[in-house]
Amino acid sequence: xxxxxxxxxxxxxxxxxxxxxxxxxxxxxxxxxxxxxxxxxxxxxxxxxxxxxxxxxxxxxxxxxxxxxxxxxxxxxxxxxxxxxxxxxxxxxxxxxxxxxxxxxxxxxxxxxxxxxxxxxxxxxxxxxxxxxxxxxxxxxxxxxxxxxxxxxxxxxxxxxxxxxxxxxxxxxxxxxxxxxxxxxxxxxxxxxxxxxxxxxxxxxxxxxxxxxxxxxxxxxxxxxxxxxxxxxxxxxxxxxxxxxxxxxxxxxxxxxxxxxxxxxxxxxxxxxxxxxxxxxxxxxxxxxxxxxxxxxxxxxxxxxxxxxxxxxxxxxxxxxxxxxxxxxxxxxxxxxxxxxxxxxxxxxxxxxxxxxxxxxxxxxxxxxxxxxxxxxxx
Amino acid sequence: xxxxxxxxxxxxxxxxxxxxxxxxxxxxxxxxxxxxxxxxxxxxxxxxxxxxxxxxxxxxxxxxxxxxxxxxxxxxxxxxxxxxxxxxxxxxxxxxxxxxxxxxxxxxxxxxxxxxxxxxxxxxxxxxxxxxxxxxxxxxxxxxxx
Lengths: 379, 146
What we know:
Order of helices and strands of chain A: EHEHEHEHHHEEEEHEHHHHEE
Helix content of chain A: 25-40%
Largest sheet of chain B: 6 strands, mixed
Oligomer: heterodimer
Distance between the termini of chain A: 19 Å
Number of domains of chain A: 1
Largest sheet of chain A: 9 strands, mixed
Strand order of the largest sheet of chain A: 3-2-4-7-1-8-11-10-9
Radius of gyration of chain A: 19 Å
Largest interface: A-B, 33 and 42 residues
Shape of chain B: globular
Number of domains of chain B: 1
Radius of gyration of chain B: 18 Å
Structural class of chain B: mainly beta
CATH class of chain A: Alpha Beta
Number of helices of chain B: 0
Helix content of chain B: under 10%
Order of helices and strands of chain B: EEEEEEEEEE
């Protein structure tokens, strides 16, 4: 396998774009990434496109019909919330394997105001068991995952709420975030409950968005840029059998497996990280992943947020972008956008939210069902 | 005009709820137990996702009592679903967990204790166009001796 570098990265500000078609969003992100890399679509040898809600409708090819058809292979990927990051990994693999010398990864999604993902889709007839036989909707599932952490370690709702306070504060410096609204701990705690312990400000919004990245062999990157970002590890895992996983999705084990593999591949550890963009779909999830990614010891996540270690300026900043809680979570775009945010920090181009001197960053995404990606990037 | 008259039935909302024909017997949940490693699944499986045995599994009748593992209180759901309610995960003694609603308590975290004993009951939650009763299982705090 060859080392791979990112030479172009872009994202559109996440938000609501009802006046645009989905392929326009993806095309816009690609044009920005091509411009960033100083290359043309004519140079691109393979494209991997991530999208979930139009997964049966050749989104990648439709994007190319907007901006340029050269007949290259196009792969359309869907992998729950890890759709975009899985597309990125496929693009990475196509270059790392030696098969292609320039790959384009794009993630795009148009969700409008659709909410409360999950449940449904069982193909059964008759009334839905949702709300009658528990809940399979994401707010309840991630509420339960947080409550499990409370049960094990005595974590409090207030500690989970502090995640939302932190991420919304971070968003104030990120013009790409859909929401830039600072919330006090009181605001978060007093907001209406969606699914306890998560209140409204502790749940990520949906939205529309797109992000793109261009990858080449690391030893050819100098031809395009003075700031190549190395993909030190790109890992994808699914959920191994674990107790209760079929009933209460286990978001922890596959993240731990992915982290272990990624640190080994990169030859780095959690202590080497300068920033992390992780899958804070709900505030409860973020604290679980502090431990899953080894940012702290078992049961220490509550203390970690209490002591401000994950604020920008703290020991290990988490979600300097404002996270999914502020940016929103257009499923196909999210995973690529997390990587783009890390790229910007490593290049020193993250503006007012820049993590000073960042050399190593980690992007983590989890999709229930389940799929987990971890990408470790270095400069 | 010949019309077949079919008697209306009680039908389970999920396939792993069994409703005995004999109405004096209580409905119960069924699991499928792997003969290789003992893992228990709700509903049927082609093979065991833990040990990969594809030997046909043994159907086991599950207890109607268990312990509350974790919960959430759902205040906002899909349109038409009444809230708030307690969405819980209950562990059964056979080593399998079940997703369910907890009824019989005000949906407030202070009323729910980790590990608290709960018992299953069933009720009709819907009557379909043909007049069949759709029966769901729910759990409530268990009182008294086992």
